[in-house]
Amino acid sequence: RLEARFQCHARLAMCRLIVALASALLAAGDTAPQQQQQQLNDPSLARTQLKSRQGRTYRTLPVDASATKVAPHYGNPFERPGCRADELPIWTEDGQAAWCSPSCNPPHKCPTDAPIGVTAKPECALSGIIGRQCALVCNTSVAPSQCGPTGSCRADGYCAYAKEGGLMV
After folding, report:
1. Is 29's pLDDT higher than 80?
2. What pLDDT, in 10s, does the model give residues 122-153?
3. Distance of alpha carbon 17 from alpha carbon 23, whole angstroms
4. Residue 6 predicted with pLDDT over 60
5. Which residue among 24, 30, 151, 156 sits deepest, i.e. has the most Cβ atoms within 10 Å of its Cβ?
């Protein structure tokens, strides 16, 4: 009987823990936009930072997209199917745009499959504590855009896709 009573108390404690965790998650959901903005500006999150050769800072942050079918690399993280399983969404320094970025494969090789209409060249252009990441390197003075019909060549020389509504909050 003592063993049965202990199991009952253990289950009750587990149920209380699950309810407490669920409540905390629901409460955290109300502050998600503020937390994302804090993440964007928080310099202590060095593990999410990448640096370009020019010294600009880029961050990996989650986006609301899931990979549901096979797509080319360097796609738009804001549209379905989103980033591939082997890519990270990389946000520009100003938080206005992002792109899906695969890791550089040794020795500094990047996948060459890009979305339709893209003529920019993939390069192992970003590095940080998470490793080296690829980007489509473009020339802002070349017209039409080397970044395809929905991408744009940013002033920093990388193809990216604008986040609808401007700055990420």
Report:
1. no
2. 999 999 888 899 999 999 888 778 999 999 99
3. 10
4. no
5. 151
What pLDDT digit, counting tens, does each position of 112-124 carry? 999 999 999 999 9
Tell me, yes or no, if the pTM score tops 0.90: no
Q: Are 16 and 144 in contact (CB under 8 A)?
A: no
In the chain, domain spans: 2-30, 33-162
| Tokens of residue 115, six digits | 């979305």
Q: Tell me how far apart the alpha carbons of residues 100 and 88 are, in angstroms, rounded to a whole number.
A: 6
